[in-house]
Design goal:
By secondary structure, this protein is of the alpha+beta class. It folds into two domains: 262 residues, 3-Layer(aba) Sandwich (Aminopeptidase); 117 residues, Alpha-Beta Plaits, CATH 3.30.70.360. Strands 1, 2, 3, 6, 7, 8, 14, 15 and 16 form a nine-stranded mixed beta sheet that branches. The chain has a five-stranded antiparallel beta sheet with strand order 10-11-12-9-13. It has a three-stranded antiparallel beta sheet with strand order 4-5-17. A hairpin with a 2-residue loop joins strand 10 and strand 11. Helix 1 packs antiparallel against helix 4, helix 4 packs across helix 10 and helix 8 packs across helix 10. The protein starts with a helix and ends with a helix.
């Protein structure tokens, strides 16, 4: 379909306004209020859940429903997140050569406000013209902090059996077929303090134990499907004190291999890391205690190409002139948690670029084409009910 001039202007204008509203994870309320106002302006009610406190946010997830023009239609969920990574500078969107960018040296917030603007424009469109399927619009909080908002979502509130997330910063046409399980590992070493110049032999260095552990670990990109990283290290009190305490904060990610459980490979990687931590703590020249806390932040997935959600996504992309490209991603999205909660979901690229970086941008064309794809998804979902091939 071709968008009208008013729809294009609304989409770009709404996107720019959303970007100006600061909404780093934990402070999504102002952005949520704008979304609620835009939906209510076209007669769409919005429910807010109670996920905010558990997700560390001043706001809960938002859920809106728009019924189909006819009866007995299939329901489809479209999802975007309200939060951004922390801001390095105020956001002042400007258009340069057809691309929205931040005039200041910092992120734009296109991750994920490009998708938020698209869903608002879609709501306006189908309220005016009617929708071939029931639509649920989900706006989550805390996505950038290990999918905190969608983790707290009560999935029993959802009526859809197919879902689509627009949250991958890559060219339109790409769909994420596999995403990793993610574990957070915190290790707290405890040794014994001593004067470093007079009685160093009486001390037990927690920093030495941590360093030995790091040196023994496999870190970085381990293979095509797995990564591990030590993100922070903190310890010690002064240069003349053998350090009694040291803490490491780490992560491990692994995409499940075909035929493997969604968490199995990541669990094996975590087990390897934990072994290195204990071996270092028990080394004769360290002799420290270590407490290790392991938390699974989200589960990974690998989609079947034959699944209905994938077939719908690919058919919608082709209808809009984009050849589908199946990719794997080392990152995650709300699709991870929705799939874990039992909703067949596909993460579809939205054409944004350089997310989480100064210089982040998205073209006006990508915004418009993403809206066209979202509308085509509704038609393809309806075609499932009509028994048509997709």
């Amino acid at each position: 379909m071709r968008l009208g001039e008013l729809e294009r202007r609304y989409l770009s204008g709404t996107f720019a306004e959303l970007c100006r509203i600061e909404s780093p994870s934990g402070r999504e309320r102002a952005c949520a209020q704008r979304v609620i106002a835009e939906l209510r302006a076209v007669g769409v009610g919005v429910e807010e859940d109670d996920a905010g406190p558990a997700a560390g946010s001043d706001c809960g997830n938002l859920l809106a429903r728009i019924p189909a023009a006819g009866e007995g239609r299939r329901s489809v969920l479209l999802c975007a997140h309200l939060d951004t990574v922390p801001l390095q500078a105020p956001v002042e969107p400007v258009l340069r050569d057809g691309f929205w960018e931040n005039a200041n040296e910092g992120i734009l917030g296109a991750d994920n406000k490009a998708a938020v603007a698209v869903l608002l424009a879609l709501a306006r469109h189908i309220r005016r013209t009617g929708s071939p399927a029931d639509v649920e619009l989900l706006f989550t909080v805390g996505e950038e902090v290990s999918l905190a908002g969608s983790r707290e979502l009560d999935a029993s509130r959802l009526r859809s059996d197919l879902g689509f997330v627009f949250d991958h910063a890559s060219p339109l046409g790409e769909i994420v077929m596999a995403s990793p399980t993610h574990f957070r590992i915190e290790a707290a070493f405890r040794g014994l303090a001593a004067h470093a110049g007079i009685r160093p032999q009486e001390g037990r260095s927690a920093i030495l134990a941590a360093a030995r552990a790091i040196a023994a670990m496999r870190l970085g990109r381990l293979d095509e499907h797995a990564t591990a990283n030590v993100g922070t290290i903190a310890g010690g009190t002064a240069i003349n004190v053998v350090p009694e305490r040291c803490t490491l904060l780490m992560e491990a990610r692994a995409i499940p291999l075909p035929g493997q459980s969604e968490n199995g490979r990541a669990e094996a990687l975590v087990s390897e890391i934990v072994d290195r931590l204990h071996e270092a703590a028990n080394a004769p020249d360290c002799d420290c205690d270590v407490d290790v806390d392991v938390r699974r932040m989200f589960s990974g997935y690998r989609l079947a190409a034959s699944s209905a959600a994938v077939r719908v996504a690919e058919a919608a992309l082709r209808r809009c002139g984009h050849e589908p490209v199946r990719i794997s991603s080392g990152g995650a999205s709300d699709a991870n948690t929705l799939i874990a909660k039992g909703l067949a979901t596909v993460n579809v690229a939205n054409g944004t670029e350089r997310n989480h970086e100064p210089g982040e941008r998205v073209s006006v064309l990508a915004l418009e084409q993403t809206l066209e794809v979202a509308l085509a998804l509704l038609d393809q979902v309806a075609a499932l009910d009509a028994g048509a091939a997709v």
